[in-house]
Write a structure and sequence with these properties.
This protein is α/β, with parallel strands linked by helices. It has helices spanning 13-22, 52-64, 78-89, 108-119, 135-142, 157-170, 190-209, 224-232, 256-264, and strands at 4-8, 32-39, 68-75, 93-98, 124-128, 148-152, 176-184, 214-222, 239-242, 269-271. α1 runs parallel beside α2 (52-64).
């Protein structure tokens, strides 16, 4: 599914847990990783890479997991440099830490991760820094990504692409899937919309069942932001998959559903960005 991943580090203790999490991504097919640190021009010195010993240690941790590791450091605006590194190395996944503040500008791991999502042309796995715990705990949590996935869909083109990533996960050993569609308040003929949604969820559940995945289907009525937030915050899932809409021109914020999910879930979030133009690799296809 995913073969090469870019792992973002800011060389802090928190990023050590992100690195440990990334070390467990072999379950998704990852065998090559690129550990990248983007250097703020203001902090660059002639003494070499700041925190180079930490950088080297994090690379060694990934190598100890049996991954082929490359390292890359760049000067510039972090989100654009991360995308450039991913392009240069042919990566099909970016892994980044994120504060649970939604996709709005804040700190390095807030604004950078949100900007990466806005511009990335490949999926982004966001790992909440506040809930990672120690590197050992982080690795254990991320080794269970395929236990139970919450998949949120509004049946848009973005969501349909995300559903193909869900099917790819099924072929990597996904155990359970929780499929959710919310019929918004005020929707015209909500019952007809609910019936149509149920039929489409049943089709997806049948595809997952072919790969041995047990799927539950939920069609709810109400505010998509509220319902998705509550479901994502239930603590029942090992991974959440979302597909944000393109933000309005000039806006740095993505949609309210995605932001609410990130604020409330303790699980890693696989985001299929608005600019993602990559189909997943499906085993056997």
């Amino acid at each position: 599914m995913f073969e090469r991943a870019v792992i973002c580090t800011d060389l802090t203790q928190s990023s050590a847990s992100v690195v440990a999490c990334a070390g467990a991504l072999g379950a998704l097919g990852v065998h090559d990783v690129v550990l990248v640190h983007v250097i703020d021009v203001a902090s660059a010195t002639s003494d070499g890479l700041p925190g180079s010993a930490v950088f080297e240690r994090q690379a060694e941790i990934l190598e100890s997991e049996g991954l082929a590791v490359a390292v890359d450091a760049a000067l510039g605006y972090p989100a654009f440099e991360i995308e450039a590194v991913a392009d240069r190395h042919g990566a099909d996944l970016v892994v980044a830490g994120s504060h649970r503040k939604g996709l709005y500008p804040s700190t390095f791991s807030g604004s950078t991760s949100s900007d990466v999502v806005r511009i990335s042309t490949r999926p982004v796995l966001l790992v909440a820094l506040e809930v990672l715990g120690s590197p050992a705990e982080s690795r254990t949590a991320c080794s269970r990504l395929l236990s139970c996935v919450l998949f949120l869909t509004d049946f848009s083109d973005r969501s349909e692409l995300a559903s193909r990533y869900l099917v790819a996960l099924a072929r990597k050993g996904l155990q359970k899937a929780d499929l959710l569609h919310v019929v918004p308040i005020g929707e015209r003929d909500p019952q007809a919309r609910a019936r149509s949604a149920a039929e489409r969820l049943e089709e997806l559940a049948a595809r997952l069942a072919d790969d041995g995945v047990s799927a539950t289907m939920r069609v709810a009525f109400g505010s998509p932001t509220t319902v998705a937030s509550e479901r994502a915050g239930s603590g029942e899932h090992s991974l959440v998959i979302v597909a944000p809409h393109q933000p309005p021109q000039g806006s740095q914020a993505l949609d309210s559903v995605t932001s609410a999910v990130i604020r409330n879930t303790t699980a890693p979030v696989l985001v299929i960005p608005p600019n993602c133009d990559r189909e997943p690799r499906l085993a056997g296809v």
